[in-house]
Amino acid sequence: MSNSTIYNTIKYDVEDNILTLTLHRPEKMNAFTGEMMNEMIDAFDKADADDDIRAIIVTGSGDRAFCAGADLSSGADTFNYEKHSESPQSDDAKLKRKDVDGAIQDDGSVNWSHEAVRDGGGRLTLRIFKCLKPVIAAVNGAAVGIGVTMQLAMDIRIASESARFGFVFTRRGMVPEACSSWFLPRIVGMPKALEWTFSGRVFDAQEALNGGLVRSLHKPEELLSVARGIAREIADNTAPVSVALSRQMLWRMSAAADPMEAHKIDSRGIFSRGRQGDSAEGVMSFLEKRPATFPDNVSTDMPDYFPWWDEPEYS
To answer: What distance in Å separates the CA atoms of residue 160 and residue 7, rounded to the nearest whole number?
Structure first.
């Protein structure tokens, strides 16, 4: 079974329970725009609501780039939101102008809590972080700026031997975005995170592998096949509710102050899963030496303590 949804800047293709999201602005090396942000967030919303999707692969169109970072076509004012909104040419631009104007207070100071101040890359990575399906990045080419930071909220990263990476923010007079100051040190360690962000240099796939940023390197023509193999193993053998819970448990407990916090959530998970059909099926399929057919769905059978981080003791 396969299906697709039409977007302007990404491709959304589902086949055999695996969604492939392809960043699709090949003429711009798949550079990131506000429209791409909105479309990717919508795509993750659709994927979470679709029980037929068991895993997600994110890759780039063509063989040159995964994502070359933010679209810099606005020139010097690319990151100056106020300048963007001075001469709006579209309804979307007019809305942005209203938002930015709302962030500037009467005395000229900035309301730092205003919605318009929020980083677009961060909106996307936070959505990926909340995803209930495993996310695999298949990095087929250049990945710099948001092109690499969006990957940090993904679970498994594999790369083409020709891929390149760069946390280039300091070389553009900017700072790390897309929540990368939270994700990157957890993935590669603080010393490497500091080195890469301080220098802003672009480095090759082997350095990314050595630094722990990616799991493995592959020939360009084999990259998607390997990604699908990883996704296939998950889709064919695991309980989707257990995967969804495990994904959120591991990510969120990585910042817990004490292992007791993990114990609380582990205990809820064990107790709740033991009462549902997946547990019985998992045990009996093992004893009977047959493939499991798990009955529970993410859309309808998540335990009632989920999402636990919205409770007062976790907020």
So the answer is: 26
Contacts for 39-43: CB closer than 8 Å, 24+ residues apart: 39/7, 39/8, 39/9, 39/10, 40/10, 40/124, 40/127, 41/123, 41/124, 41/127, 42/7, 43/5, 43/7, 43/10, 43/12, 43/19
Please name which of 100, 95, 102 lies closest in space to residue 80, comparing C-alpha atoms: 100
d(CA 144, CA 196): 11
Helix (H, G, I), strand (E, B) or coil at 14: strand
Residue 86 has pLDDT above 50, yes or no: no
Contact status, residue 200 vs residue 194, Cβ threshold 8 Å? no
What phi, psi does 27 have (nearest 5°)? -70, -15
Q: pTM to 2 decimals? A: 0.89
Tens digits of residue pLDDT in 185-201: 999 999 999 999 999 99
Which domains can be identified in the chain, with CATH numbers? 2-72+120-234 (3.90.226.10), 79-117 (no CATH), 239-310 (1.10.12.10)
Query: Of the candidates 301, 264, 233, which has an alpha carbon nearest to the alpha carbon of residue 51?
Result: 301
Enumerate residues 6+ apart whose C-beta is below 8 A from 71.
Answer: 28, 31, 32, 33, 78
Give the DSSP letter string of 95-127: HHHHHHHHHB-TTS-B-TTSGGGS-HHHHHHHH
| 106-139: pLDDT as tens digits | 788 888 787 777 889 999 999 999 999 999 999 9
